[in-house]
From TrEMBL:
InterPro entries per record: 4Fe4S_Fe-S-bd, 4Fe4S_Fe_S_CS, Electron_Trans/Redox
PROSITE patterns to which the protein is assigned, alphabetical: 4FE4S_FER_1 (PS00198), 4FE4S_FER_2 (PS51379)
Pfam family, one: Fer4_10
Transmembrane segments: 22-39, 51-70, 91-110, 144-164, 176-197, 231-254, 294-317, 329-350
Native source organism of the sequence: Hymenobacter actinosclerus
Name by which UniProt lists this protein: 4Fe-4S binding domain-containing protein
GO cellular component: plasma membrane
Amino acid sequence: MDSSQTLTADAPLPEVAGTEKLLLSLVALGLLLLLPATFDADAWRARWCFYAALGLLSAGTLGWAAWKYGRKPPGVHNHNLWLRASTSRGAVAWVTGLVLTGFYVILYWFSSPDDQGNFGPLNQLVHALDPVSQLLRNRPSDQWFLYGTFYTLAILLMGGRALWKYRHSPYHLIRTGVLMFFQLGFAFLLPGLLLAFQRPEFYFSYFWPLKPEYLFPDTVGYLLKDGGPGLGVFMVFWTAVISLVGVPVLTYFFGKRWYCSWVCGCGGLAETAGDPYRQLADTSRTAWKWEVRIIYTVLVVIVLLTALLWVGASGAVPALASVTQPLSQAYGFAIGSVFSGVIGVGFYPLMGARVWCRFGCPMAAYLGLLQKHFSRFRITTNGAQCISCGNCSNVCEMGIDVKQYAQRGEPIIRASCVGCGMCSTACPRGVLNLENGPREGRYQGSQLIHADSLRILS
């Protein structure tokens, strides 16, 4: 064997134990049962296959997480991430991305109900949830209830995995628990209960500009009318106050992490189901340039669209009435469906879990501007302790090359940082710390360390 063959030989992966194979087999069997649940013409049999699939997926995932991480010492470990085809853009990752992308395409564009209540390719899966939907919402299931169920289950199951994996960190235990709570309570159960009481479906954990329609004139009118004089007014008041007052105040004190890493459902899925793919985020300067160009363009578009809709609704410019509605629909298709859904989640195994948060989310852009220019939040570094291992950059799902800041002893004050704290957790030397200190001296980390070094040398 020549030297070139020796250098390019693949490193061996550790052998998979029998217990792990058994638990992963439960997951595989659960996925397999989704096929008869989708295509079996017998509705009763399809329904039971569906519930059996969810049960096997849940038991297999939680059992595997407990076995995989509970037997090892606490701490952030790479676990051969760059050797496995599932987490290094290998064949398994491409197949997973294709399946996720295909599901979103079918959900958004091929699952609208016809006059007979048929939901196309997802019809059996949708109606399998009719009993749950009737119990929670007092109405039959639809494609969005199916999606909400899958979404919530993914966060709960992979949140359980995260609780095992990061059990050594109180910060991550609490943060993961809060994410699971908001998704289950505020994004799944509460909107369903509102429908059960004949009130508008409303998500209290989503605000403008992430949920731009909540400040659109038509939505405001609908909430005031169907929500009633009490609840409807509160919904409109809540959206306006939290978007325009609450968000800036909370971001001033805590940075954008209070929302992006603790409350938001998009961030919740990224931090749980997307955790195996966080190392895939592109840290290049080119990626950062595209990030800035795209995300702030989206924010400008939604601000202008909201303003145009209100001007059009006022009747001051009659010609706008024929323009604003198509613009709103185009935004919903390009950003709400294609970007946040198909690309934002479907590309997890190929581009990392925060593609939508990095490049397309107007809420992240809004919070990022506040965080960079007005917030007390930053990640402080102690360059003298940095050993340049690169663990911090490897786990940053926002594509920030944290190691470069740590080596220079500079505080990390980036608009894109969601404050997940994973860089601090992964650091073996305690170099990085999340702080909400005074705004004075936010950018002086490197200068202060340099001055201290000069004093020591002198």
